[in-house]
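User: ok so my PI wants both of these folded by tonight, can you help

Assistant: No problem, let's get them done. Here's the first:
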Amino acid sequence: MRLRPRPRPGAVTVGAVRGAALLLGLACFGSTLWHGLDEPGNALAFGTLVALGELARWGAPPGTGTPPAAEEPRGSEPAPLAAAGALAYALLGTSAGAPTTHGVPQTVAVVVAAGLAGIVPHVARGRGPGLDHLARRVLTVGFAALCFQPLYNAGVVTEHLGQGPAYALFLVLLLLLTALCDAVLAALLLRARTGFPYGPLLRDELRAFLGIGSAVCATGTVMALGVAAAGLWALPVLAVPLLLTQVSFRRYAAVRTVNRQTIASLARATEIAGCTPPGHARRVAALSAAVGRELGLSGAELAVLEHAALMHDIGQLSLVDPVAGGATALLPAEEQRRIALLGGEVVRRTGVPEAVAVVVERQADPYREQPLPARIVRAVNAYDDLAATGTGEGAAAALGALERLRLGTARDYHPDVVECLARVLARGGAAGVTSAVPG
């Protein structure tokens, strides 16, 4: 009898979230088709807004992926106008003074149908959003509608809060609760896919909410209140500020992309000059980011760490005689420190943040004197150097490199960083890095 392999816990979590979103969407579609569409004008207006928001979403073209730590915050909303319109429809109580009756099922059905219509052109060009994003949108909109629509339709909200400031504050609190729900889901899905600790991922999601997420919630609230007072004509007027914000964020993201590409090009200079083996900087950066995630670094700290890891060997360009094989981990401590200081000077001339230069120039110090990012870069760089120059192949070379790092924890490598590196490698390494260490 042949046994089927047991699915990974992460795959089970992702499947459960997607399955819940699929069941909710199908149930809401079925209910809406059975009972008919209430207030078609409202449904058409908000559906059009959501579809246009999805059409105006931003995203990287296929094949231009960036390193995990250097991405925009994972909590940032790529389609803020669609998100704000969906939340406004979920929290819509009255339209031009007339009470609405669309309820939870119709809310979810309209948002899902409009969202699917808006992403079709992106899917046709190979730039469509992932299934996880769609699942989060369905579940968060359903959550917001479930918290508001039954209470409003039963008259509880207007009876106790009226239509004044207390009602507006109630909408804001509901949207904040919905944002928290979305952050929990996003961190849970990312934890399932990557295996990174859940706490730091949730913290990054909540921090990202302070950017475009807060604008989405504020616009959703204002849209719901504006339509309640002035009718559907308020929608295009209130959508303009968020659309302008989206354009500004897109330009900011483009600038960050150019900066990352510049840093990656500078990192390749050592490979082109023959100072380091091909792919060394990329491997060290990917593994450093994974170790930093494991140790709980925030998004900004991870960006500094990854940029420093990409440029950690740039000091070798100042050497008259290149290091054999580019393996600086095998050099005497004083020579390592000299190369690190040279690298720090070069990095400062490139215009990157000062924190990156500090990590590069302190990577060769005794670990008790180093900041955490420098400890990570030193250990990961040594692992890659030792695995490439050690005896044996594959798993034997990788295990031998880890053993040498463990032997050096008295002075050179922080024990926690080394053990964290071992755990990352046991899980299969980082994106773009093939680990030879068996799990």
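One down. Here's the second:
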Amino acid sequence: MKSKIKKWTAADIPQRTEGLAVITGSTEGIGYEDALALSSAGWSVIIMGRNPQKGAESIIRIRDINPKAKLSFEKIDLADLSSIKAFASKMTAKGRPIDLLINNAGVMTPPKRLETADGFELQFGTNHIGHVALTAQLLPLLRKSPDARVVTVSSVANREGQINFDDLQSKASYTPMKAYGQAKLANLMFALELQRQSEKHGWGITSIAAHPGVSRTNLLITGAGRWSGPGIMRTFFPFLFQPTSQGALPTLYAATSPEAKGGRYYGPDKMQETRGFPSVAKIPAQASDLKVSLQLWEVSKKLAKVEF
């Protein structure tokens, strides 16, 4: 049953005079749109990515639209646990509370199996383990905020995903979309489990999941390749994909709306959640398996070398 959210847009984001948002993968795509919208609503935003030049260009683009935007760039590679630790240590030393963490960065369907710096399959390691490591290490700063939210971005690809504990890193068999589905299912299950753990341990963190539907980002091209099936669709049939700014709305709703609830999942409301305005999304049955969720939580902590 769909919720009755009525055509919520970025104009509905409550204005703030303070508040710090940390957004992974925010030099382009959905993350960039998140940074633009939040900074326009008065948030201080840390744009994050691997490329400082892209980060600087993103800040210039946003300040051209909103000269008063409070923005900074921090370099981080979510495919490298040491890079995540270095960023978290820097933030911890500053001591400023974090009010919002958006786990957005993602890698999609590289044709060949690739590995992170720590030996994880690239999609599972970057999309899931990297964000587990980051969230855990920023938890003390999130807990210093009176109303911190963590929004983790999943995908409609999670519907076909399965968590294969016997081959989490796709070493025995690598199929690009299968590995991506597992990683995005893990994102959703992590978001839901984080809410349960927060409630259990009294962390005071609200954890929410969101997905952008099918949006006009470069994820398909940079992952699968321009001449892959999905890449060709994205390049030559852009009208099949909703604008990136529209795809960002479920994440922004989850991040800022007073109506968004912990442990919920939000996505677009039309055409099987591929496009439209924010609404409650359907959680796949496999994401609701509490036993598997807890097992994934424990395994992920070990792989990420963190405790919450």
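The longest strand covers residues 44-49. The longest helix spans residues 176-201. Good luck tonight!
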